[in-house]
Amino acid sequence: MKLSDSIVAVALGAAAMYYLDPELGRRRRAMLRDQMVARRNEASRYLARNARRAAGELQGAAYGARSAMGMTGGPATDGQLRERIRSALGRLVSTPGSINVGVAGGNVLLTGHVLAGERDRLVSSIAGMDGVERVSDQMAVYDEPGNVPELQGAKS
Fold first, then answer.
1. DSSP letters of 125-145?
2. Of 5, 40, 101, 143, which residue is most buried, by most CB within 10 angstroms?
């Protein structure tokens, strides 16, 4: 018998004594089982999370490739275009809730209240969006928020 075989035999014997001890063995086995279950659950959550992330990245790459090749599935509907514009308002103006957006056949109607410093950027950004044919600006323009309730909290 080699020395390494003896070391393995001693280690296995010590582990058996530790876990099969008549007084504390049951508790030790239960703790080991709980730790193994916890590690298995952590690994499962980790794999599921990374699988979802990878699937999302793959789907995004596929959509990007389709878009680059011009296979986007046709023009956006008026409802889709309206929601894209509403989404962009938060990045373009300080009070997006003060602007109403209407879309019909790719023609965009903007009504509501806007600050003068934000108006030009807003109209040009919306006019440059895919699917927008024309922008009709019927917004009330103000130099500062003043007493206009819709513009309260705006950056002057």
1. HHHTSTT--EEEEEEEEESS-
2. 101
Q: What local confidence, expressed as pLDDT, does residue 54 receive?
A: 96
The list of the chain residues with pLDDT below 70 reads 1, 70-75, 154-156
Cβ burial, residue 44 (10 Å; 0-12/13-18/19+) = exposed
Q: Which of 104, 102, 92 is nearest to 137 (CA)?
A: 102
DSSP code string of 65-100 = HHHHTT-S-SPPPHHHHHHHHHHHHHHH-S-GGGEE
Structure letter (DSSP) for residue 129? S
Q: Are strands 107-115 and 134-142 parallel, antiparallel or unpaired?
A: parallel
Give residue-wise pLDDT tens across range 19-35.
888 888 889 889 999 99
Residue with tokens 């409802």: 79
Q: How high is the pLDDT of residue 86? A: 93
pLDDT of residue 1: 64
Please give the DSSP secondary-structure letter assigned to residue 152: T
Tokens of 17: 């004594």
Domains annotated for the chain, with CATH where assigned, are 52-142 (3.30.1340.30)
Predicted local distance difference test score (pLDDT) of residue 73: 64
